[in-house]
Write a structure and sequence with these properties.
By secondary structure, the chain is mostly helical. 80% of the residues lie in helices and 0% in strands. It contains nine helices and no strands. Helix 7 packs across helix 8.
Length: 177
């Protein structure tokens, strides 16, 4: 991209931002989309040689970015709706059964790596938020999420190994220790 084309695009910043804001309804989101589009234009703009077509090309790029934004938010909304439907139908087991399950899970979790056992104990047993666990462990929230996911998978494997078919069929009377 030539310096003249870059200058022309930057000169239209306000118009681009207004264009995006009208389409997404949120200034902060519009600013994020615009910044990402400027970065992409630097990466992909080598082919543009004409200043007048650069603005039209950039508007096409912005339209595509808006479409991508709505696709991502639509996917996120569908995932949240699915999770909400799962929660609506979920039934909390009676306290005595929950205690039995938690006891079995804690025994098996103790055989995992200490950081995995701590993640399961804090988040799944004690119902702490992942962010809270992350802060306590001195790690980022995304790292805590990954750790928790790996811990659950390791625990799942441990339950299958120890409990066998009992784990597959939801046995509540756990005497397979």
């Amino acid at each position: 991209m030539t310096p003249d084309i870059a200058e022309r695009l930057v000169g239209n910043h306000r118009q681009f931002l207004a264009f995006l804001e009208r389409r997404v309804g949120d200034r902060a989101i519009a600013e994020d989309i615009l910044q990402d589009a400027f970065v992409r234009s630097i990466e992909k703009g080598e082919d543009i040689r004409d200043e007048t077509s650069a603005v039209a090309w950039f508007y096409r790029m912005l339209r595509n970015a808006v479409i991508d934004h709505y696709r991502r938010s639509g996917t996120r909304n569908r995932a949240l709706e699915g999770f909400a439907a799962e929660l609506k139908d979920a039934v909390e087991p009676p306290p005595e059964i929950k205690a039995e399950i938690c006891g079995c899970v804690l025994d098996l979790a103790a055989t995992l790596k200490p950081e995995y056992a701590a993640a399961i104990q804090r988040v799944d047993i004690e119902d702490a938020a992942v962010n809270e666990f992350a802060s306590e462990a001195g790690i980022t929230a995304s790292n805590a999420g990954v750790r928790l996911s790996r811990a659950r998978e390791a625990l799942r494997k441990q339950v299958r190994a120890v409990c066998g078919t009992c784990a597959e069929h939801g046995c509540v009377d756990c005497h397979c220790k």
